[in-house]
Amino acid sequence: MHGTWFQYMRSGDQKPKVTKELLLRVLNYARPYWWHISGMLITILLSAALTLVSPLIFRQMIDTVLPSKDLNQLTILAIALLLVPILNGGIGVIQRRLNSAVGEGVIYDLRSGLFARLQRMSLRFFTNTKTGELMSRLNSDVVGAQNAISNTIVNIVTNLVEAIAILVVMLTLQWKLTVLSVLVLPIFIIVAQRLGVLLRDIAREGMDLNAQMNAHMNETLNIGGALLVKLFGRSKEEEARFRQRAAGVRDIGIRRAVIGSTFFVILGLVSAVGTALVYGLGGYYVIQGSFTIGTIVAFGSYLGSLYGALQGLAGAPVEFSTSMVSFERVFELIDLPQDITEKENAIDLQNVKGELEFDNVTFNYKVDDSILLSEVKRYGSMDNVGAVLSGGNGQSSAIKRREERAASDSAEVDPTSQARAVALEGISFKAPTGSLVALVGPSGAGKTTITYLIPRLYDPTSGVIRLDGYDLHDVTLDSLSSVIGMVTQETYLFHDTIRTNLTYAKIDATQEEIESAARAANIHNFIMDLPDGYDTIVGERGYRLSGGEKQRIALARVILKNPRILVLDEATSSLDSESESLIQDALKRVMAGRTNIVIAHRLSTILAADLILVMDRGRIVERGTHDELIATGGLYAQLYETQFRGERV
Description:
By secondary structure, the chain is α/β, with parallel strands linked by helices.
């Protein structure tokens, strides 16, 4: 009963449409477990039958055995009263085993399907979707969805079978008392609905307060937030802010507990009214001689079971619709279209030379809403919290900013700003096998975007990118990924050992291969000086290592992959001069025979480039070698004067 009304409180005012198509799709997930479900139905029928036995035993014992002082029959009935709960308990264990197999199986199927789907989504999807929303779908929604199959449907069938069976027996015993006991139910339903709405609203407020507290913990207790709090000396302020939010959760919890207890006390009193009427009228029939004492005792026992079954059936529609909401959210993610797709007869790249060509490529980061998840209101979820520290409404603030930007569309554009609607426009260049192409330009000019298009993290809005003459759309994604190695500007390491992070590039790499790659990246000696060597845990996002150490591990990882195309996005930006010099020597060997696309803010890398592409506001504004670009006196010459001239080469 408590679970039913908790579902009711969580459901709010949502009234999802339970369509035939949705139901059929839900039942498809139950189909692999039809043997288990059939077994559950059998156990439900057996359990319902046993539920009817005990009151009849009491009736026989009171009306016949005790008055006749039949010790033999008394012994048999006493043993039967012992066997009934034992059998019921055994059946309950079997039913729970079958139920768990179905429930956990459905959770496994849904989670596996969702995770597999997410692995095929593009980077655009992840940059526009909150991680918390994905976690909610993989956890809360998946559990809520399986509840429809393993619990809701089972509970409906159980309560329905019990209610029908009990009503039949009660009508057989005394139809007038049965009608009287059922007439009290409308009073119960009215009281339950009104108090349920009040308790639901309190629970909703409590979930919102709990979400704010959780969001605050999430913001300040992760390693980045903890570091920021300490650097700005805001520990006392954060403690006070947390105490305030925790106090809100405490107060609403006390209020919910008191009203919840009152809620169930009133429901119990309403049930007691029906019970009192039945026993009162039943007692009258006993005095009149038309009703035995055993019959009224059995009738009272049946009455409690009947009320429980009917209460469960009254709350079933809300519980079932709540589960359907979860299924809809899961199906929405499964059904999202992929914007990075592979052709049916895609070419599997073989013997790649590494000749890369951009042909009039234009790209826009504008997002098609059809590939994104819809906003979902979840009470108790951190996704519903706007501004975490200020407590403001993040959504309304965002709307206000969009309105302000829209109002200033006609304003004059700052020529020094890289802000624009189109990320890349008319990009054309060739990178022959073994060449080094350097991308330079102001921050935000589009350099990183170009590198993201090469492994098809995004697809061009227009234009063609070719590898060895093949359009990237015509090749398989796996073969494309296998020939491209990339070190991004923000190095990411898993919370695992250095060995695991390195072998992510090549699962079957030998220790010799691992050490060779580490030496090439000038990180082997550092690793060997660590207490656990290559088995050292790097910490969350690699925070136990310095920026330079993380980047050298990332370089070793891509070296271990041994790709035909090497993409470096400021891969040496966090290194000191000595480490960079050693890595530059290593990179010269690693780059040999490969196509290399490098975003660099170091003059040494630029001077070694066969072709320098100068980016500005999403376009290639200059191209050539270092000497050629210096001679033109354009943007590159300005960048050289301001950024590179003081460097030692």
